[in-house]
Write a structure and sequence with these properties.
The chain is of the alpha+beta class. It has two domains: 2-223 and 258-276 and 485-548, FAD/NAD(P)-binding domain; 279-480, Succinate dehydrogenase/fumarate reductase flavoprotein, catalytic domain (Flavocytochrome C3, Chain A, domain 1), CATH 3.90.700. It contains 18 helices and 21 strands. It has helices at residues 12-23, 56-60, 67-78, 88-102, 105-111, 146-163, 230-235, 259-266, 324-332, 345-351, 361-364, 368-372, 381-389, 399-410, 417-429, 439-447, 451-456, 531-548, and strands at residues 3-8, 28-32, 49-51, 140-142, 168-171, 173-181, 184-193, 208-221, 249-250, 271-272, 277-285, 295-299, 305-308, 338-344, 353-354, 393-396, 472-484, 487-488, 495-497, 503-509, 559-560. The strands form four sheets. Strands 1, 2, 5, 6, 7, 8, 19, 20 and 21 form a nine-stranded mixed beta sheet that branches. Helix 1 packs across helix 6. The longest helix is centred in the N-terminal third of the chain and has 18 residues, at 146-163. The protein is globular, with a radius of gyration of 24 Å. Pfam families: FAD_binding_2.
Length: 561
């Protein structure tokens, strides 16, 4: 019952590592605290976007990309400033990841049976100088089948191996401690949780029905981040982003609790870059929630006007889809934890998409017929459902009625109708010409020079107050928790390092718990499409490395009660 490797967490990083270990014919134990129907973890709920460089899909759309340009964008976004210490290995992982994204990643994914939607998305456009934050070109490749298709590519292999006895997979096994001996990690112990029948994503029972203890030559922590642990998010909230929000919605299920970070730290692992995190500014309260405080993110096009809680329009680069953390900082420094989009029906029908596999059933179900319906008049079905049922939407035929509705929804009278009208009129005057001094209008024209945006993501420039484009729509935007950018510091083999910078024998980490590599591969900012990719890459690296190691003689035992 002694294993070559134990993997903690059946999310995408853990599954990827296990698949490599299966190929290497290693004796593997995979444990996860959730039921089997939660295999794939957080990745299942994702939109399925992957960061790739110089692909056939890009070239077909006339996009000229290169590894050099991608590395320029990565460094400009990451802003690594702790290279002597906390960022040392993160920087090395970043270089390796960009090489992967521009090299073998595309063909490797194809070998796993993963296909892509033909239109490449343009996430995190930046809005500053060439060497600053953001993607210079569209790189957001949407998996055909979204998150579930990515999960299926790896979960099917793991489940088949489990059924045939090649590996052991134990759901409802919650790790509470890592076993150590002379400074080395030798196994795991924890609680067996009662079986429970729930929908994927729902909070599961924590009723303990037994305990377990297993040993191995290597333990891989692949347990995810802290996004659902709002207290931990607030505790680590960076002062540069202002005070932590009083109210946030959760973009991840309750099991993303960060508990393995503390457990691994107790065993000697070092956590770095705790103050780096990635939360979205365009969160909606889900009208049909699956988990507690369930939030959904708007994936916006470039046209909506963005106002703070007091009714002041945000300045560059704080436009929809341009610089997430810059906008988060601007919002938090207002002293309020919400903001507003003001837009038209013409904008929402083309520019609003919602994050999550369950909000994009046409792509998730791989229905070409349903995808083609997106070009028809009116918002996508999921967006329309939020318009009709979501508490964050206000719809009106006149701007006065719209502002009155916004004040009513916010429960205050902070928004002044004339102040908002003047700002919208000033913006609308800039639409008269195909050029402008307004940075957002220029960005909109620039976006429509890309055929992908012109077809499905950027509405034709028009005046917000044009009655023909109405009705008017306001959307209250909440802060939505999502990703942990810091984490366990690891070298390029995925070995967890201690406070002295030395590997903890027998201890490895992959995925979000390791900051997607090295304790913070993204630095301060993400280019998007890099979270799923980071899970895949770290799981691949750790699994390959462990697959090459010879078994360590060990007389330790496995006990389950």
């Amino acid at each position: 019952m002694h294993y070559d490797a134990i993997v903690i967490g059946a999310g995408l990083a853990g599954l990827t590592a296990v698949c490599q270990l299966i190929d290497a014919q290693k004796k593997v134990l995979l444990v996860d605290q959730e039921p089997e129907n939660s295999i794939g973890g957080q990745a299942f709920w994702s939109f399925g976007g992957l960061f790739l460089v110089d692909t056939p899909e890009q070239r077909r759309l006339g996009i000229k990309d290169s590894k050099e340009l991608a590395w320029q964008d990565w460094r400009g976004s990451a802003g690594f400033d702790r290279l002597e210490d906390e960022d040392y290995w993160a920087y090395e992982w970043a270089k390796a990841y960009v090489d992967f994204a521009a090299g073998e990643k595309y063909q490797w994914l194809k070998l796993q049976g993963i296909q892509f939607f033909p239109v490449v998305g343009w996430a995190e456009r930046g809005g500053a100088l060439a060497g600053g934050h953001g993607n210079s070109v569209p790189r957001f490749h949407i998996v055909w089948g979204t998150g579930p298709a990515i999960v299926e590519a790896f979960a099917s292999k793991v489940l088949q191996a489990s059924e045939s006895g090649l590996i052991d997979y134990l759901p409802r096994h919650q790790v509470t401690d890592l076993l150590t001996e002379d400074g080395a990690v030798t196994g795991i112990q924890g609680n067996i949780l009662e079986n429970c029948i729930i929908r994927r994503g729902e909070e599961s029972s924590r009723e303990v029905i037994g305990t377990f203890e297993y040993t191995a030559d290597a333990v891989v922590v692949a347990s995810g981040g802290i996004g659902a642990n709002l207290e931990l998010v607030k505790e680590n909230w960076p002062s540069r982003l202002g005070l932590p929000p009083k109210n946030m919605v959760s973009g991840v299920p309750a099991f993303v609790d960060g508990k393995m970070l503390e457990i691994t730290e107790r065993a000697g692992g070092r956590i770095v870059n705790r103050d780096r995190m990635w939360h979205y500014t365009e969160g909606l309260k889900n009208w049909d929630p699956i988990w507690k405080n369930h939030g959904i993110r708007i994936l916006p096009g470039p046209s909506s006007m963005w106002f703070d809680a007091r009714g002041d329009r945000f300045k560059a680069p704080n436009f929809p889809g341009f610089d997430t953390l810059s906008t988060l900082e601007a919002i938090q420094k207002t002293g309020y934890d919400y903001s507003w989009f003001i837009l038209t029906e013409k904008i929402i029908e083309k520019e609003f998409a919602l994050s999550g596999s369950e909000q994009n059933m046409d792509l998730t179900n791989k229905s070409i017929k349903d995808v083609l319906k997106r070009v028809l008049p009116g918002p996508p079905k999921a967006v329309q459902a939020f318009k009709e049922n979501g508490e964050d939407f206000v719809i009106a035929d006149s701007l006065k009625d719209l502002v009155d509705g916004m004040n009513k929804l916010a429960g205050n009278d902070m928004l002044d109708f004339m102040h908002i009208k003047e700002q919208i009129l000033a913006r609308d005057r800039e639409i008269e010409n195909p050029f402008s001094k307004d940075a957002q209008i220029n960005a909109l024209h620039g976006a429509r020079n890309y055929i992908g945006d012109k077809l499905i993501r950027a509405a034709s420039p028009h005046k917000i107050l044009d009655p023909k484009a109405g009705p008017l729509i306001a959307v209250r935007l909440n802060i939505l928790t999502r990703k942990t950018l810091g984490g366990l510091q690891t070298n390029l083999n995925g070995q967890v390092l201690n406070d002295e910078g030395n590997p903890v024998q027998g201890l490895f980490a992959a995925g979000e718990v390791s900051g997607f590599g090295g304790g913070g591969v993204h630095g301060y900012r993400s280019l998007e499409g890099t979270f799923l990719g980071g899970c895949l890459f770290t799981g691949l690296k750790v699994g390959k490395y462990l697959g090459t190691l010879k078994p360590v003689p060990n007389k330790a035992k496995a006990i389950e009660v």
